[in-house]
Amino acid sequence: MKVTALSGGVGGARFLRGLVALQAAGELDELTVVGNVGDDLEILGLHVSPDLDSVLYALAGLSDEERGWGRADETWNALESAGALGGDAWFRLGDRDIGLHLVRSQGLREGRPLSAVTAELARACGLGLTLLPATDDPLRTFLETPAGTFPFQTWFVGHGHRDEVDAVHYAGAPEATPAPGVIEAIEAADVLVLTPSNPYVSIHPILAVPAIREAVAARAVPCVAVSPLIGGKAVKGPADRMLARMAGGTAPADVAGCYAGLIDALVIDEADGDAARPDDVRIVVTQTLMRDDEARLRLAAAVLEAAGTPA
Ligand code: FO1
Prior knowledge:
The chain is an alpha/beta fold.
């Protein structure tokens, strides 16, 4: 079985560990991950792709479990030094993490596309899956708030995502073309998965690439999304506030509404079992909190089962 997953950073990466465990157990043959690049940024002369890196680090067993982003056993000497010299220190790049950004930035400066550099990094990290950025073209997420319009990381990290969001834009998306292999992976998949990530800032930037949205909309196979909410609340981050304000609620019906015409089933937590459901999307109820490896494996298995269950 071939699975292609569209994924954001922290929540998505945690979930992907379950799919990788299923792959190791022989339950699926090929896994391709299409990652969000809308929250990429250039800082201190480095190109940082936080969501691709969250996937890389999580699947290579290098991630900091508690922080959710960046590497374990991290130190911050380079950042402290840069800050003391007047450089940007608001976006925390650890010493080990910087090593990766140096390699990526050099590759990009030499003219290689992000997809090629990402493939090299995934290989170097020993990943047994294909990790593709949604696009090699510049695509950046901007948040429109009552306090102004901000690039993703300025709003998320710089302002601690305190400003409510009225609208989200994906600059560059209309002209962006999918990275090599993305459409092929969507068309060759037996199951498409939208990981438990924030719809607006993790999955929508991927779907904002017109050819990707068209390929998912034209699918001949099941597409299963996993809700990032538990009891109408985000495990971490602003997804619940964004849904409440922009979709009008945090029930499964509201989450499914973010993916209108693009999903066949939505996996939700037991805590949301009684909340409003969509009419046109099958609901599968299970435990979605990914506390440990076993929970991740169970959730990944539930997603594949949801794909196989007739409507
Ligand atoms: N998140 C933070 O809340 N504060 C940071 O300083 C920060 C730095 C950072 C550096 C590298 C990286 O790969 C991720 C980093 N993140 C940080 C996480 C990141 O902003 C978000 O989790 C994702 O962009 C959202 O998926």
